[in-house]
Every structure is written in C-alpha cells, then in structure tokens.
Write a structure and sequence with these properties.
2 copies of one chain form a homodimer.
Chain A (H helix, E strand, L loop, with lengths): L8 H15 L6 H6 L5 H13 L3 E4 L4 E4 L1 H14 L2 H15 L2 E8 L2 E8 L14 E2 L5 H8 L3 H10 L13 H14 L2 E4 L6 E9 L5 E10 L5 H5 L2 H18 L10
Antiparallel strand pairs in A: 1-2, 3-4, 3-8, 4-5, 6-7, 7-8
Helix pairs in contact in A: 1-3, 5-10, 6-8
Chain A binds a DNA duplex through helix 1, helix 2 and helix 3.
DNA sequence: TAAATCAGTTCCATTATTTGAAACTTGATT
DNA sequence: AATCAAGTTTCAAATAATGGAACTGATTTA
C-alpha cells in the first residue's frame, strides 16, 4: 500500500536529519537526535557522517555535538542573491531606512512563516536580534499580516491553519477568527500594524510588495519602540513606505525576478 | 584501483550539483549544467528534480532556469547562529561600529577564503555590497591577510597555494612570495591593511581574533574610503579594534549554549 | 573489581535505490 | 512537413543504503 511518497530517497532522508539538527536551537548530541528520530541508529549515524563530511553539519568533537555547518552560510549567500528580493530592493531599503531613521525589514512569505531577507539598522536601533534568514510568525508581525492580508483566499486559509497562535503579549491575536477579521481590516486599509503583538514595547507598520498582477512578492516594515513612536506617528510613514514598495515592485518587474515562490505551504 | 573515495554516495552527488548551481553566478539552464557536469543527462536531471523538490534549488518554470532555493537561507540562519562567531561577537561589533563610524566586518577563514559572517554599516557607508555568507579572497583583503598571518605554518602554506592572485588593482599582491613577505610584516606589526588592493578607493585595517592558545578564530576589519581616511588614520584605530577582538575572544571562551531542558516526550 | 549501563561505532547479508543508454516527447527552426 | 535541440521517461543492471546485532570503550553501579 505504497503511500504517495513524499521523500526524495537518500537525499531527502539526509535533509530530514539536517532539519532535525536545525530544529534543536542549540548543538545537539547523537543520542538526542536518535531519540527524536524515526531512523534506526546505524542509519542516522551514517547520515550524520555524510552530512558532517559534506560540511552541512559541523561536529564539535570536544563536546560531541552536532550543529549546522558553515557550508550552508556560503550557499545561502548565493541563494539570497539570486532568489530573494533583497538585491533588487537594496537601494530602496537603504533610502527608506536613511529617511525614517528606524529599523527596516524586508521579508517574504515562506512555508507559512515570515522569512526576513534583509534588514537595515537605524541610527537608533531597536534591541532585537534579526538577520537575513530568520523566520518569524505570520500572525503577530506587521509584515506577516500585511503579506497574508493580500494573499489569495486559498493560500490565506492554508497559512492560517498552520499558525500556532502563541500569546507572546496581551495584544497577540490568539485565534484564527481574530486574525481573519484583522486581515480584512488590513486589506481595506492597505497596511498593517504590529501593536506590541510579538514583543512588548515594539511596534511596527508594514506594507506588502505587490506585483502588477497583485501577487504578494514580499513585505516591508518599519519597526520602532513605544518610547519613540505610537501607531499614529507610524501611520504617517505609510506614504513613504508605499513609494518604497511600489519602486521595489517596479524594479522586480524589470529585473524579471526569478519566480514567485508560490509559498509551498 | 579504488581511488580514496571523496564522494558521499547520492547525497554527495546531489551536493556536487548544488555547488555547480551555486557556481554559476546567475540562474542557469539544464543544458548549461549538463555541459559542465560529469553526470549523465538522466542522472543530472533526477538530482535536480530531487533538489528542486527539496527546495534547495528553485526552478523558474517561465525561464527554465535553476538557482539556489530559499530553504538554504533558512538553514543558514541556524548555522550562522550556532557555528559562527557572529552571535557572541554581536555587541562588540555593534559598539565598535558605533564608535568608529565606519563599516565593520567580522570574518572567518573558511576553505582558503574569507567568509564574512557579520557586518555593520556605518553612518557613512562605503558602497560595497556585502552580507553574511559572502566570500572573498584572502590575499587582497585586510581580514584575509590578518587571519592568514597568524595561522599555523602548514595552514598558511596550504591557503597560499589555493590563491589565484588576480590583480584587482595596481596594489594587489600578485605572487605567493609577495604575500608571504607581507604576512611576516603583518605578524610582526600585529595588524593588516588593505591598501586599495581589492578595490580602488577602499582601504581597511584588520586584526585577527586569537584564542588563548593563539589559534585564529576570525578577524575584524574597519573599512573606509581614501576620501575619508588614509592608512595612518586607520592605524590610529588599532588600539580600539584590539580591545574589540580581545573581548570577542574572551566571550567565545565563555560561550556555552543554554543547557538542555529534558524533553517530555 | 566485576558487572551493568550507556553512548557511539562497525559489520554484512538483505533490500531498495540509483544508474544511464536509449527511446521518447516537446517545442522551436528551417 | 522535416529537422534539430532541449528536456523527460523507461527499465534491467549496477550500486548504494539498510538495520539488527554485535562490538568498543567509557562511566556508573553493586
């Protein structure tokens, strides 16, 4: 009764293991991986050997732990340059960050999550540790909600179903219903806020980057603190951000950007 | 006559192909890959299918081209957090960048190349497009020379043998001999310059990050333009950079990942 | 001090996947 | 319609992966 196999042979299995190593947010021992793995001991062992030899994972022989390897960092740079919005949005993001003097993020929707692909630190940086490659939740970030609000019906439903609705703060939206109604609001208004929904004291305003065919390509947000801004003063930045996202969309059109990643959910 | 096997079965072959895709600095067609590949058509085809399905490469069906996929960007973030110096050096790099007001790079030596793992843009940024994950040449960058100068004899020779000595500018060192003598000089002096050796108008000063056992862990550089600085004014920053690299080395010594919380399964 | 326990590694006959030459399909060009 | 190039599929043979069990070596327990 062969199910429609989802795994790509040995390569798929190796990448399963790679994901597992990535899933632990710290270096991890063989036995920990084994106890969380479906693979038999010898198989897991050999896959890790292969991955280590290939430098996709690095093995700390002193502590006997595995973590992801630097080869991924090198490869990711190439991925980022060729498959993300970041290179073509660069000058626009630079200009926006310079003018508003706050932290600017460029993000894309990926696997039901927000994938940050670029970032500019303001002169007065907010104390958050983000970087290209970081992923965040959709339901409680400005860019996440902005991108989702303008996504197609089908994708929107699928992504909502994937959310965990963890209540990070008292303001976090904690149900699909609340999120759906917020998304309608955002769609009507044209932009999204994050009103301390992910982290206390951190607020942001975000707009989607829409292609000519109204496809969501990504999102841009300006993040600040409640000490420096409130929602009204952030809203005042919307026209400036709008021109940024319009320009990025235009650039992307001209660059004939690879392909919308139809957010394989 | 089995050669000492270098490849890790199917996974190794798939990663060969991944490297090949990364090697083209643009989206690439199947036939281009095929003509540069040792693998037969059907094999290459299936490996690409697998990689695409796994999102390590993305396929632009409109233009029929392959490029690296965003899954790598997600994975790399985890690699960067756990296996690079960047997270533990973060606050020191921030402080340095703030004080000197110029672009600061944090790099590590990897495969005979300079791997940039972090970067801070100055208030007055130099016009260069770098990012975590970018690799650069050792022989004509400040960090590259600083790290190499303090590496062990064996590694130094090995890395020198790997250099291509492309003359980017009139100042580029173009021979192993010239590089070796420069490295001696750097070792004696304790820091390295990049005197427009990679790009005209761009100069930098760099120091290695040395562990307690005098192992090279990475390097830190301050980059500027000839319009704003000369080698003498950059040299004046050395004591400040020295304290940064000392602090980073100390941090790295102490760094331990948060202890495991025994998972309730 | 021996025995037991645990973490990691290797073995090897069995099983499953990968291989690649060739045939085929598709789409563009003559 | 015929030709050509690019991409895709087939299938028996070749190869690699599998995993239960046995082994090692380090630490803990009796």
């Amino acid at each position: 009764m062969a199910q429609p196999e989802r795994s790509d042979g040995t390569v798929g299995k190796a990448l399963d293991v790679l994901d597992q190593v990535a899933g632990f947010d710290r270096p991890v021992r063989f036995s920990e991986l084994l106890s969380h793995s479906d693979y038999p001991k010898a198989t897991l062992y050999r896959l890790l050997q292969t991955l280590t030899h290939q430098e996709l994972v690095s093995f700390d022989s002193e502590r006997q732990t595995y973590s992801l390897g630097m080869r991924l960092v090198r490869l990711a740079h190439s991925a980022w340059r060729h498959s993300s919005l970041a290179p073509m949005a660069r000058s626009q993001i630079d200009a926006l960050a310079g003018e508003v003097g706050e932290t600017v993020h460029l993000a894309q929707l990926d696997h039901g999550q927000v994938l940050y692909v670029d970032k500019r630190n303001a002169a007065s940086p907010v104390d958050m540790f983000s970087q290209a490659g970081k992923v965040g939740p959709v339901y409680c970030t400005g860019v996440g909600k902005a991108m989702l609000a303008f996504s197609g019906q089908a994708q929107q439903m699928q992504v909502i179903a994937q959310q965990s609705f963890h209540p990070f703060t008292p303001n976090t939206l904690v149900s699909a219903e609340a999120l759906r109604s917020e998304l309608e609001h955002i769609r009507a208004r044209g932009y999204a806020f994050d009103n301390e929904e992910h982290e206390a004291g951190i607020i942001c305003v975000a707009l989607p980057i829409l292609s000519q065919t109204a496809q969501v390509m990504g999102g841009v947000s300006v993040t600040s603190t409640t000490a420096r801004h409130n929602l009204a003063t952030l809203a005042a930045l919307v026209p400036r951000i709008q021109s940024t996202v319009d320009e990025i969309a235009k650039e992307a059109q001209n660059w004939r950007f690879p392909e919308q990643i139809p957010a394989t959910v």
